[in-house]
Write a structure and sequence with these properties.
By secondary structure, the chain is of the alpha/beta class. The chain contains eleven helices and eleven strands. The protein folds into three domains: 4-81, Orthogonal Bundle (Arc Repressor Mutant, subunit A), CATH 1.10.10.10; 86-161 and 265-295, 3-Layer(aba) Sandwich (D-Maltodextrin-Binding Protein, domain 2); 163-263, D-Maltodextrin-Binding Protein, domain 2, CATH 3.40.190. Helix content is 43%, strand content 23%. The strands form three sheets. Strands 3, 4, 5, 6, 9, 10 and 11 form a seven-stranded mixed β-sheet that branches. Strands 1-2 form a two-stranded antiparallel ribbon. Strand 1 and strand 2 form a beta hairpin. The radius of gyration is 22 Å and the shape is globular. The protein starts with a helix and ends in a 5-residue tail after the last helix.
Length: 296
């Protein structure tokens, strides 16, 4: 039998990816984390990680042990669900969604937690396929995705229609911008930005648009909360879902240009079949549904 405490430390380390932050999260010292890792490796009989400076990668044995750690956590959560009373305001619940939706919904979820002091809500920004996989394996109770989902083990409910927005500095509000003027301004690129550009610009500039790889990139950033910053400072334009624009703290420094043809993404909230019958999951599902009407 693997030591439960050591296994929990190792699983947390794999999730966090950093010894110091793992120690802080578990209320331990960094040497204590290393000691648990060493003891677990001794128990298994093989090294679990391969260190490279301050980072590490899992060995095959480490990957196998992590699978057990994640499965044990899921089993414990299911046991806790059975033991605890089915109270909509009590317990642990996890949500996976895009980075822009996470930024937008999180302040609303904090309001929900103020109303329910014993409710713990965990929000993780993740790509579409990761959300699907994590809802299926029970890591996420709920997921918000931008595509319809048809899976025999999932329930999917249409949540809202979210506009894909061309975002420019406030000084350009109300102006008519063509692709030439946008290229002069420069694109604030981000991981989803190229697909968004293909989606929105192909629709509005069918003759001139030659693909995202032909856009003049002014800067690139992969942190969703920082994407609007260079736009607000007049350094370029970007394309974001409306939630990513509305969540920006200096929203007044941005302007949305209304192109002749609007593009919308349908948002869906998904859960594993049967999971939404748990009171707290059903309550949060309903709360997100009511809150997301503001995006329409």
């Amino acid at each position: 039998m693997l030591n439960a405490t050591w296994l929990n430390t190792f699983t947390t380390l794999c999730e966090v990816g950093h010894f110091t932050r793992t120690a802080e999260l578990l209320g331990m010292t960094q040497p204590g984390v290393s000691q648990h890792l060493h003891k677990l490796a001794s128990q298994v009989g093989k090294p679990l990680v391969s260190k490279d400076g301050k980072s590490f990668t899992l060995t095959p044995a480490g990957e196998a042990v992590l699978t057990i750690g994640l499965a044990r956590r899921q089993q414990e959560r299911e046991l806790q669900d059975t033991i605890n009373s089915d109270d909509p305001d009590v317990g642990d619940i996890s949500l996976g969604c895009s980075g822009s939706f996470a930024m937008w919904i999180y302040p609303h979820l904090l309001d929900r937690m103020h109303q329910a002091p014993e409710l713990v809500i965990r929000v993780t920004a993740a790509p579409h396929m990761s959300i699907l996989t994590s809802v299926l394996n029970g890591e996420f109770d709920l997921g918000v995705v931008a595509e319809p989902v048809n899976h025999p083990r999932l329930d999917a409910i249409e949540l809202a229609r979210e506009e894909l927005c061309l975002v420019v500095p406030r000084s350009l509000a109300g102006q008519v911008l063509d692709l030439h003027l946008l290229n002069e301004l420069g694109f604030v690129a981000h991981p989803d930005g190229y697909a968004y550009a293909d989606d929105l610009f192909s629709l509005n500039f069918p003759k001139d648009y030659k693909g995202a790889d032909r856009l003049r990139v002014r800067t690139f950033v992969n942190q969703i909360g920082q994407i609007p910053i260079p736009v607000a400072q007049g350094l370029g334009y970007t394309i974001l879902p409306k939630s990513g624009v509305d969540a920006f703290a200096e929203r007044q420094e941005l302007a949305i240009i209304q192109l002749p043809k609007q593009r919308f993404h349908d948002l869906w909230i998904i859960s594993r079949k049967g999971r939404s019958e748990i009171a707290r999951v059903a309550a949060l599902n309903d709360f997100i549904g009511r809150t997301a009407t503001a995006l329409r």
